Amino acid sequence: MAKAHRKKGKARQSTKTTTKKHSPPAKSRKAKAKNEGPNIAIIGGGTRCRALLEMLAAERFTHLKAKIVAVADINPEAPGFLLAKEQGIYTTTDYHDLSQLDNLDLIIELTGKEELLQDLIRNKQPQAQVLDYTISRLISDMVTFKGEYKARERDLSLSQSMINTLFAGIREPLFLLQQDFRILDANEPMLNLIGLPKEEVIGRTCHEVSHRSLQPCNSKTCHCPMKETLKTGLSAHAIHEHLDRNNRPCYLEVFTYPLKDNYDQVNMVFEFYRDITDDLELRLETKARQVKKDLARLVHEDKMIALGKLVASSVHEINNPIAGIHTLAKLMLRTLDEDQLEAEQLEEFRRYLELVAHESSRCGQIVSNLLSFSRQKDMVRRPVEINDIIRAVILLCQHRMQLQNIDIQEELDPDLPEITGDYNQIQQCIMNVIFNAMEAMPDGGKLTLGTSFKRKNRMVHINISDTGCGIPEENLSMIFEPFFSTKEASQGVGLGLSVVYGIIREHHGTIYVKSEVGTGTTFTIRFPEGQKDF
Description:
With about 525 residues, the chain is α/β, with parallel strands linked by helices. It folds into three domains: about 5-25 and about 35-145, Rossmann fold (3-Layer(aba) Sandwich); about 170-275, Beta-Lactamase; about 285-530, 2-Layer Sandwich (Heat Shock Protein 90). About 45% of the residues lie in helices and about 20% in strands. The protein has 13 helices and 17 strands. It has helices spanning about 45-55, 80-85, 115-125, 135-170, 190-195, 205-210, 225-230, 275-340, 345-375, 385-405, 425-440, 475, 495-505; strands at about 40-45, 65-70, 90, 105-110, 130, 175, 185, 235-245, 250-260, 265-275, 380-385, 405-410, 420, 445-455, 460-465, 510-515, 520-530. It has a five-stranded parallel β-sheet with strand order 3-2-1-4-5, with helices on both faces. The longest helix has about 60 residues, at about 275-340.
């Protein structure tokens, strides 16, 4: 080392170490070529030095032809120092050795030591410039930033590749949406579901593609999970009816998940679809079967209640003819025991026997109707004559009406067409309405039963009117609700009209009620003209 260039008492970077130095390049007065860049020496061989060496080696500085010719650091294990050795660059643990280098144009000081910088300025070669720590730090920060940028660029590329792989590998239909509902990307299952190529999907809105609508979902029956996710920043869920590629309706579970930025703001949204059409149809079918089963059970239970009301009056109705039959039988036996029958007596016996046959037949018919009414049968749809059902109900209720002093008026259309339905259920329906009318007239009144056919809507109408107490207006909207009743607990649980409503809906019919307190009530039941299928 040439000690002539050192001055006594000046600051030094370090004491001598045992590390072997590379020999400095020989001095040469030969000028550099015009297209060569500056020769640079770096004091401080840390991570910034290493980053600068790496970027120069990778030719990241396109327009800079600089060349690092020396690196100095007191620590021979510093990362930049070691890399410089690997690249064949002159290294030293004493920065004063840099003064021996010829054609040195620039010294970058990265240690930040003021006394070292002042010593460099005093002892540098005249043509060499010295960048102080602040400027050197700025350059090194720019180098570091560019290195970090490249590293992040690599990480971003890797992340994008992973996202693309995951996006393509998801088997459920998937949209990537912007905040304005426009589609950024769609995977293959989604394209197969909607039946459109990707170029016709990208850039359009999700509601335009899935709902064929220019406006986002905003109805109560079609909740938009995308709006909820944008509002709350959380995942959301809804069930939508969409059209598939064949324009057939399908039911989809829609899930939305937010993609947030560093400020926890929603930037984009993933929207997943899951086809639940088959599952939903199975659930609906199962539910419908359960509802029908429950309705059948309620009909039978309500029928037993009605049967109990009929039995009391039917017993009296049957008892009278049986008593007459018994009396006639005893009279005929006594006559036979007394003497032989004459011609007049034989004719009288004939009249007695005809009366017995008639009354016993009537008793048998009443019992038969009661038994038929009480049986629980499976629902069987077949052509039904409404007038026949009304006459059968009148036969069952007639004696009770007589006991209550209720007059019956029939206004049945003889040309009424048949309807398709279950005989027993429709009978139960009409029976319940008539019972309600009878209970509204405890002190007697008039019950009018009428039927007609409206050709305009092809509906069979049944009108049941009473002159009873009427229904208060505030109760009219609730009379078909289960367990609603204005009667005492001993008179029923309030299932009658709810069962009526269920039977009529099951037969695709409707029921209306008009009532005025103190005047009476009219129920109008409508059934569609005979149909083969429901």
